[in-house]
Write a structure and sequence with these properties.
It comes from Leptolyngbya iicbica LK. GO terms for molecular function: hydrolase activity, acting on carbon-nitrogen (but not peptide) bonds, in linear amides. This is Acetamidase. By secondary structure, this protein is an alpha+beta fold. The protein folds into 2 domains: about 350 residues, Acetamidase/Formamidase-like domains (Jelly Rolls, Sandwich), CATH 2.60.120.580; about 90 residues, Endonuclease I-creI, CATH 3.10.28. It has 9 helices and 26 strands. Strands 1-5-22-9-19-23-24-26-25 form a 9-stranded mixed β-sheet. Strands 2, 4, 8, 16, 18, 20 and 21 form a 7-stranded mixed β-sheet that branches. It has a 4-stranded antiparallel β-sheet with strand order 10-11-12-15, with no helix packed on it. Helix 8 crosses helix 9. The protein is globular.
Amino acid sequence: MVWGMSRKGRFALMSLGATALLIAIASLSNGVGLGQRAIAQTMADHYLAATADTVHWGYFSQDLAPELVMNSGETVTVETLTHHANDDASLMVMGDPGAESVYEWTEDGKGVDRRGAGSIDPEVYTVGAGEGAGVHILTGPIYVNGAEPGDVLEVEILDVAPRPSANPDYEGRTFGSNAAAWWGFHYNDMLEESREVITIYELDSTGEEDYATALYNFQWTPQTDPYGVVHEIIDYPGVPVDHDTVEENYEVLEGVTVPIRPHFGVIGLAPAEADIVDSVPPSYFGGNIDNWRIGKGATMYYPVAVEGGLLSMGDPHAAQGDSELAGTAIETSLTGTFRVTVHKQDELPDTVLEDLYYPLLETDTEYIVHGFSYPNYLADLGETAQQDIYANSSIDKAMRDAFRKMRHFLMTTQGLTEDEAVSLMSVAADFGITQVVDGNWGVHGIIKKEVLPMA
C-alpha cells in the first residue's frame, strides 16, 4: 500500500505498466510488496498489489468498484494473500506492509472489517462483521473493457511465485498453513474426539524446489479476538492465534515431503443473481473451484454475467490433493501474472467455447469441465440459496452435473452424437472429486486433447 495517497491516486498507479509502477512505488514508499520482488522479472501491463484498499474479504459482488481497469489481451500481475496467515502471524504477516494492512485488528478496528457475505450490523452479527459467511481474501475486482453478459472471459496463468516471509528472522523462507477443520469431510469420522488441527508447512521461497515439509502442528484451542469474542472453533477468518495458548508439536510428518503444485483456489467473476455472494461455494462464475490444476500454464474460461466481468482472485495454495479432504490446502500467499482476454458472444460458435455456461479449464494436453452439486446454486435454490447449499450438496449430484457438462462439451464443440459422447467418456475421460468441503461439492471431468476429433 502506498500510504498517504488518495484512492484515486492509487488507482492511477494501477493503470501504469509494471516497470513504471515499481519505480513509482519505490520512490513513494520504503515498503515494496514482497510479491512485487518475487515476480518482478515477469513484466506485465498492470500490477495490482494486495492491501486493505484493494481486497475484499469473503465475498463476490457486482456492486464493488473496480480496483483496476484493463483491456482485453493485456497482462496483469496480481498479489494474493492467504486468509490463514494469522495461524502464525510471525511467519506470514509480520513485516509485510500489504499483509499487515489487511490483517490489522485492534480493539479499535480492523484493516478490513467485513469478512464474509453476512450481516455487518453489530446488532445482528455474532462472530464478526460479515459473519465469516465466506472466508477468502480476494484481490480486485478487475474491470475488463468490452466484457458483457454472454461473453466468455479467458484467464491465462503465465506465472506464479511464492511470497516470502518479511520477518527478518525468516528471511528467504516461505510458509503456509493447513487447517484440518470442522468443515472437513473427515471431521465427524475421527477415531478419537473431533478436533481441529493446524499444520504449518515450509516451502522454498525461490520456487526452485518442488516440495514442502511440515514444520509443526497444533490443536485449535478457544481463541479470543481483539474485540473480545471467543472463537471455540475456526468460525471467522483471520482470528489471530495466540501461540501461548496452544501446544506446538514439532514431531510431525517426519521424513515426508509434499509435492508443490502452486495454484489459485479462487478465480472468478461477479455473479448477477445476488448483490453479495459468499466466496466459498463455487458456481458457473468460477470462484472457489479448488482444482490444483489451475496453476502456471493453465487457462480458465468463465461465462460473463455482469458488465466488465469484475474478475477477482485469491485463496492461493502451495499444494492440494483432489477432494481437499480436511477442509484446506497448504494455504500460502502467491503472486500471479495473468493474460485476460474477452471472447465476444458472436465469436463463440464453432469454437471450444460455444454455448459455454460453466468454468472450463484448458491445459496443454487436456480440457477439464467442472461439475457441481448445483450448476447455478443461486438460481437453483432460490432466496435462501446461500444458506441451503451447505445442506444439500452431494457427490452424486456433482457427478451428474460433470457428466452432463462433458456430454455437452463433446456434442457441442466436437460434433459427436450423444451415443458417441457417452462411449468416449466411458473409455477415455477421467472423472475425479475436486472438493467435498466448499458447500457446492465438485467433480471434474478430464478429456485429453489427443482423443478429440477437433482438438
